[in-house]
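Hi, here's the filled form for the chain we discussed.

Project: internal
Contact: R.S.
Residues: 128
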Amino acid sequence: MMLGVWSADPSWIGDFVKGQLAYAMVILSFLGGVHWGVALLSSALPDASTRKALLWGVTPSLIAWCATLFSGFGFAVMMAGFIAALQVDKQLYPVYGLPDWMLPLRKQLTTVVVVTLLLTVIGANLRG
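And the returned structure, exactly as it came back:
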């Protein structure tokens, strides 16, 4: 969708922007779902860690929902949400005992997502 903002007819930019934001909301919500999955499937997780996982698990979707309240500023809310999710994952993934490859992958994906969202905003403002 970011490419559409930069290459499509300017009359379509608004649709690409909405689509990009909606997709980012779904992905951010999914990142919270990972924590719910761990909490529900790990019987070895201490009760305090399970509570943290369940509480944090709903937070990314709430951040995503808040992004809908801020129009154009919603992209900044989403970028902050992805960065915050990565910071929390850095703390909680080791507690969960997730594979070592998960955090480097999360870092790479967060970088791609934040850059894509930023380029979408820049493209929409330059071409719109």
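Let me know if anything looks off before we file it.
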